[in-house]
Automatic annotation (TrEMBL):
This is histidine kinase. Gene3D superfamilies: 1.10.287.130, Histidine kinase-like ATPase, C-terminal domain, Tetratricopeptide repeat domain. Its EC number is 2.7.13.3. Coiled coil: none annotated.
Length: 652
């Protein structure tokens, strides 16, 4: 019984270390392929980190690489930086914190890969690093637990990368457990998946060789040979060809075809001696098969030499190694050496079996603990989902209330807009009717007024010698003129209110226009009142409407003349280059306007003295004209010596 247990443990150690080494090469090849389509700066920095992967300082450099990749928007290199942190703990010498750190950073990679939709890194860190670490540490139950969990996730999400990594991990775990039947099942699944979805076929030769070895262990010879033939189809380089030679040699030895085995052993030995990489990294594989061959051909000296070379090349020695060494010595009839090696193998196997039992107990305790944590996590997730659903329900109700409020406000706004539109249409219609009425009435009134004015002038000329008659005719003429002016002002206000534009595209020289206004106003001031003109400069051209501007300024000068008994009336203008504006001022030393009436005078039909002549439309009409021209007309409230009207126009 002890012999069987010793043989099993020995096979486990040999198979375990044989499986791990190719995994590391595969990981390096995968990382090497990631350099394509990557920013050169990031890749150079990554290569620098990769060469120092086991150094403690590499963690800070990988943080820098992660930040650089984030700034360039390269999520792929961010995942590579996190995965290299996992590699740091995977390849570093064993410490007490190694497993915890490896689990922590594997979860970090999984979290980031899930968030950025990069499943290849999610499953690579989980399968090729964490699960392989458990296998390496002989925690096979934990490895199998993680692999089964990964298989469930990958199948639920239908992610091919996950299933590929999972089948590879399960194949290696069952090989390490010496459950070759199950290992063959998952090895075949891995190959079928690779071919079906045309995945990376770089390591397909190794996968077929592993499958062939599993079939040899279960004595399925035909399947083993067929797997060898398939492996030959996918050879890509000399190293893989060396693997093929070893695999075929193992097949001939296991099937007792020793003639072909000898020929192939010579060919494989020469091939390995000519290939440095095979000689330094994979010579153990050849030596193991050679030892088996020499034992079957009873060439015990050569078997002993080959086996001692295996012990010399490898830093580790398993119970199986010492058991085989004892059997070789026994075959050579060196029984004392055989007994020593077999006893040592049994002792080593017992200590390892005891350690393995402790590990298994610890693994089961860990699995139970993980299951308990998973259950608690599921309960917390369920509670969080219930809270989230309740919050969503409240949010939906709140959103419905808000939407209903907005809908009510919207329909109310639409209804009010319709009412306002109807009111506006009615107002515009009334305004048009008013304008049409005023225009028609003005036309009808103007005709008889013109007749009255004409006949009053005729009567005045007839009765020049009769002073009383002439006085009456002058009154009739003056009243008719005032009435005619009122009709003109009302008609003009109606036209401007209806939206009639005022064109300002006539180029004029302002000094010439001001002198014209002064000349026309010379007869208006009362005796003793001086009419003054103060220009800012000798010449200034601008685009405006001279007739409308003359209408407004002449009215301002006329008003100043009416209410100024002594002093002066000053017309001046100034320019403001920054504001691109021109200011025309009419300043007098008359009676002025009270402070509380200064806004009132610009209203229509506004008169401070109700007994004075005039219609009260002049200033209102003047302001409306200036505003239509893009300017403004105001009364200077700071001037107290009389009145000062300020007219501002844009300079075009």
């Amino acid at each position: 019984m002890k012999v069987c247990r010793s043989a099993g443990a020995a096979s486990f150690f040999l198979l375990f270390f044989w499986l791990l080494t190719p995994g590391r090469v595969c990981g390096q090849e995968t990382n090497e392929q990631e350099k394509y389509h990557v920013d050169s700066t990031l890749f150079v920095y990554y290569q620098r980190c990769r060469t120092e992967v086991t150094s403690p300082s590499v963690m800070q450099k990988l943080d820098t690489l992660f930040q650089m990749a984030a700034e360039k928007g390269d999520a792929r290199m961010q995942a590579v930086a996190l995965s290299t942190k996992v590699d740091h703990f995977y390849f570093s010498p064993a410490t007490e914190e190694q497993e915890d750190s490896l689990i922590f950073y594997t979860n970090k990679v999984k979290e980031f890969a899930l968030k950025t939709n990069q499943p290849q890194y999610y499953y690579f860190a989980w399968a090729n690093r964490l699960i392989t670490y458990y296998t390496k540490q002989k925690k096979l139950n934990l490895a199998l637990y993680e692999a089964n969990k990964m298989q469930q996730e990958a199948e639920d999400r239908e992610e091919i990368d996950g299933m590929q990594n999972c089948y590879q991990a399960l194949t290696r775990i069952y090989q390490a457990k010496e459950l070759h039947k199950q290992a063959a099942i998952y090895g075949q699944k891995l190959i079928d998946l690779t071919l079906k979805y045309n995945l990376n076929q770089y390591n397909l030769t190794n996968k077929y060789l592993e499958l062939s070895n599993c079939y040899l262990q279960t004595h399925e010879i035909e399947k083993a040979w067929k797997a060898l033939e398939e492996a030959q189809k996918y050879v890509l380089n000399e190293v893989q060809q060396g693997y093929i030679l070893c695999g075929t040699l193992r097949y001939y030895v296991q099937t007792n075809d020793l003639t072909k085995a000898r020929q192939l052993l010579e060919e494989a030995t020469q091939y390995y001696n000519n290939n440095i990489e095979l000689l330094t990294k994979r010579k153990t594989n050849l030596l193991e098969v050679a030892t088996d061959y020499y034992m079957k051909t009873k060439e015990y000296d050569k078997a002993l030499a080959a086996h001692l070379e295996i012990l010399e090349v490898n830093d580790f020695a398993t119970p199986s190694s010492y058991r085989r060494l004892g059997l070789i010595y026994a075959a050579q009839k060196e029984y004392l050496k055989a007994i020593d090696n077999l006893e040592y193998a049994f002792a080593l196997n017992d200590s390892l079996s005891s350690a393995q039992e402790d590990i298994s107990v610890g693994e089961f305790a860990t699995i139970l603990g993980m299951e308990h944590l998973n259950q608690e996590n599921k309960e917390l997730i369920q509670k969080n989902q219930e809270i989230l659903l309740e919050n969503r329900r409240r949010l939906i109700i709140l959103l419905c209330i808000i939407i209903a409020s907005f809908a009510f406000m919207f329909f109310r706004e639409v209804r009010l807009n319709k009412i306002l539109r109807r009111a506006k249409d009615a107002e515009q219609s009334a305004s048009r009717m008013k304008t049409e009425f005023i225009q028609n009435m003005s036309h009808e009134i103007r005709t008889p007024l013109n007749s009255i004015v004409g006949f009053s002038q005729l009567l005045g000329s007839i009765s020049e010698k009769n002073e009383e008659s002439k006085e009456y005719t002058d009154i009739i003429e003056q009243g008719s003129n005032h009435l005619l002016q009122l009709v003109d002002n009302v008609l003009e206000l109606a036209n401007l209110d209806s939206g009639t534009p005022i064109l300002t595209d006539t180029k004029v020289e302002i000094n010439a226009l001001c002198r014209q206004w002064i000349e026309e106003a010379k007869s208006s001031p009362k005796p003793g009142v001086e009419l003054v003109y103060q220009p800012e400069q000798e010449e200034l051209y601008l685009h405006t409407n001279p007739s409308r501007l003359t209408q407004v300024v002449s009215h301002l000068l006329h008003n100043s003349a009416r209410f100024t008994e002594k002093g002066s009336i000053t017309l001046s203008w100034h320019t403001f280059p920054k504001q691109q504006s021109l200011t025309i001022c009419v300043t007098d030393t008359g009676i002025g306007i009270p402070q509380d009436k200064q806004d009132f005078v610009f209203e229509r039909f506004a008169k401070i003295d109700t007994f004075s002549t005039g219609t009260g439309l002049g200033l209102a009409l003047g302001r409306l004209i200036i505003e239509k021209m893009g300017g403004s007309l105001i009364l200077d409230g700071k001037y107290t010596e009389g009145c000062r009207f300020i007219l501002t126009l844009p300079i075009k």
